[in-house]
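Running co-folding for FE2/S2 (inorganic) cluster.
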Amino acid sequence: MIELHTVRPYFEDKPEVLSEILDRYPEYGRRSAVMPLLWEVQRHERYVSEARIVEIAEILGITATEVRGVMSFYSTYHGEPVGTYHLQVCSTLSCKLAGSDEMCDHLEETLGLVPGETDHEGLFSLQKVECLGACTTAPVLQVNDTYYERVGRSELDELLAALRRGEMPTPKRAREGDNAQFGAAPLAGERAEAGTAADAALADAEANEDTQRKGGTA
Ligand code: FES
């Protein structure tokens, strides 16, 4: 018996998902939905295949080349499957000056990969990317959608060990001053640094917010 390997359109059985995305844009600007459509596919299939590119192009009434053009501009999108953990090392100036080359060298050595490769188990992919927009807290490593900032050698080893255990550590808080409010809890091993100026500043800011909430003065 002949087996047919046809690709079922991704959005065929997801009309609500498709409508929700398309309805975000006015009729004349439908082509702007290309990014969320690519993201929707990639989130579920880990990459965007050629068949999905053509499908998205047909949905939006644009060419497959235009869809590929968007994909190739953003390192977020992958045309090949990536590992469970996609390690993206920022290689733009601020991160380079702060040691991202050394970070990448260490990852290459530890994982036995060069940028652009995925290991045999499909666990890690390594990639060098352009500025991740967190230059003040360089060097930055992005793992899937999560940023790890001011990553040193020991944090890197700690992070890899956690990922191998199937754990995704909370990002280390590395921001200072006003930006501290956007940070998150540190990696477990970083709690020892709780006495740093940044932590003290954050604690003060939180205490002030608390006082204001309760109706007092800061
Ligand atoms: S240079 Fe690395 S985040 Fe901007």
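Result summary
Residues 132 and 174 are 15 Å apart (CA to CA).
Residues 197-213 form the longest helix (17 residues).
Job closed.
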